[in-house]
Design goal:
The chain has 546 residues and is α+β, with helices and mostly antiparallel strands. Helices cover 26% and strands 26% of the residues.
């Protein structure tokens, strides 16, 4: 029986796809797993493989044409099979598909589903879903697959590397069998509990497994599912495709586009060496601009149309406008969501104080003069914060609407910049750590954070956060509270400048720190007292060692 192949949804935001290239022609034999076409989505050009075997009987979307998701892409069946009914059915106009017909078709689907019974997953087949690898994870991206369809999988084998909002982690199989199906391709993201893979005995009918539904649904529920499935298809018939081909479409891999954007290279000047002239990474890296590719000015206007009195020529800049949309990583999405929630739910206010760092500089020099000892100013700030939190427990709290949670332990989070955004490793029981222990721990976690080797447990449980941009020369700034904390300290650079001491102007070293507070838990006077205690510790570091 012929199988209708629709335009697939290859990304979570894809609404329309364009066929960049057909790798099979009408009449070709198709095996399960063969690449049918390359489809250009809103994010990348991806290979689309067949899940059916047979002969390619019909192509519904030609190369270069675009169509909405679920539009007729192709039909696969037996050689010589009559597919006129399928083609006529797909061509039904919107006017002919009345609400009454939709309702009748929904009733028919529901009746058949109820009479035939819903499918059940065959024995020995395991459906693997996107795991929740951290407490804040809502969506994951498959960074790479370490197994491919058809491979034998043993319990404990690593199936894939999954990028969460915090790190890239290995995901192992808890089942043995054959990898029958991959539901999320490399580079694609999907919500937690989405279909990730199917493992089972070799030769299992994957389509039956994918179409299987949990038993126990009522007729009304079946009708509702049928309606949601049917209505988009009816609407899709009347959608007019606005994408047309003019011979100027540029086919390039996503990596090639990114490299070209970084180097400022116009892809229209690059010759592709990939399939069908597709531009790949090596083409962009080896590209050498020629004189002929330089833009020319449009100054050669018809002289006869010039006014009688020739005006002085004006040289205007000539160039090409360019922009590129880069897919947001899971980390970047979660950072945006969490910070937005914090900024718009917690009433922030800010307190800034200037600290005399002369004694701190002298103390640090003495400490670092000891063998195998190395501490930074940031380590001293972390230690001072931990000790100040012990004296001001109101700052070490969490707002829980009906209650305020007072944390008796002190876990200080340290904001660390990584390529994809920002992570906050946590120093557990910071008040009980020495300066050297703090320094070693921060250095270790910062390195592992940039290599995406931190575990979720090492980034959870903070009760207070410190963000330091002083090493970048930033004098003063404000931060957004890292919820569920009630406050975050922003640390600026140490500046050498004239100060007044004992009635005289002398050269001093000062540093500005800004405390962002959640006004629901920390009042202004409480925040000010915390900063005074913090300044006392930093201006007299020996008190932190007592």
């Amino acid at each position: 029986m012929a199988e209708v192949i629709n335009m697939p949804r290859l990304s979570d935001t894809m609404e329309e796809g364009t066929v960049a290239k057909w790798l099979k022609n009408v009449g070709d034999k198709i095996e399960e797993g063969d690449i049918l076409a390359e489809i250009e989505t809103d994010k990348a050009t991806m290979e689309f493989e067949s899940f059916h075997e047979g002969t390619l009987l019909h192509i519904g979307i030609e190369e270069g044409d675009g169509a909405p998701v679920d539009s007729l892409l192709a039909i696969i069946g037996e050689e010589g099979e009559d597919i006129s009914a399928l083609l006529n059915g797909s061509g039904e106009s919107k006017a002919e598909t009345t609400p009454e017909k939709i309702e009748n078709k929904v009733e028919e689907v529901a009746e058949k589903s109820t009479e035939a019974g819903v499918g059940e997953v065959p024995e020995g087949v395991e459906i693997i879903t996107m795991p929740r690898l951290s407490d804040t994870m809502e969506e994951g991206t498959v960074a790479s697959w370490l197994k491919k369809v058809g491979d034998t999988v043993e319990e404990g084998d690593i199936l894939a590397e999954i990028e969460t909002d915090k790190a890239t982690m290995e995901f192992e199989s808890f089942y043995s069998g054959t990898l029958l199906h991959i539901g999320i391709q490399e580079g694609e993201g999907a919500p937690v509990d989405s279909l990730l893979a199917v493992i089972g005995p070799e030769g299992t009918d994957v389509n039956a497994v994918l179409n299987a539904k949990p038993s126990g649904g009522t007729k009304e529920e079946t009708k509702k599912e049928a309606a949601t499935t049917e209505e988009p298809k009816v609407e899709a018939v009347a959608v007019e495709t606005s994408i047309t081909t003019d011979g100027q479409r540029i086919f390039a891999s996503p990596l090639a586009k990114k490299i070209a954007s970084d180097k400022g290279i116009n892809l229209s000047n690059v010759k592709g060496s990939g399939d069908n002239g597709r531009i790949v990474k090596r083409d962009v890296e080896n590209y050498q601009p020629s004189a002929s590719s330089q833009p020319t000015t449009a100054a050669s206007a018809d002289v006869s149309s010039a006014p009688a009195i020739a005006a002085a020529p004006i040289n205007l800049p000539v160039g090409e406008e360019g922009a590129e949309e880069v897919k947001n990583s899971q980390m970047r999405k979660v950072i945006a969501k969490r910070l937005s929630e914090s900024k718009f739910s917690a009433p922030h206010y800010y307190l800034t104080i200037e600290v005399d760092m002369d004694n701190a500089k002298a103390s640090r020099a003495q400490i670092n003069g000891l063998p195998e000892t190395k501490v930074s100013f940031n380590d001293m700030v972390l230690k001072a914060c931990a000790m100040a939190l012990k004296k001001h427990p109101q700052v070490n709290t969490t707002w829980n609407n009906d209650t305020t949670k007072y944390n008796h332990h002190i876990h200080v989070g340290v904001a660390v910049a990584v390529d994809d955004g920002l992570v906050v490793p946590v120093l557990k029981f910071t008040d009980q750590m020495s300066l050297t222990q703090i320094g070693a721990s921060v250095k270790d976690m910062a390195v592992r954070a940039r290599n995406k080797k931190l575990t979720p447990a090492e980034m959870e449980g903070s009760t207070f956060t410190v963000s330091n941009l002083g090493m970048f020369g930033i004098l003063e700034f404000t931060s957004i509270i890292n919820q569920p904390n009630s406050a975050i300290l922003s640390v600026g650079a140490i500046v050498e400048k004239p100060v007044v001491k004992n009635g005289e102007i002398v050269v001093g070293n000062t540093m500005k720190v800004t405390l962002a507070c959640d006004h629901r838990t920390v009042d202004g006077a409480t925040g000010a007292q915390f900063l005074q205690t913090l300044r006392a510790y930093l201006e007299n570091p020996v008190t932190m060692l007592a």
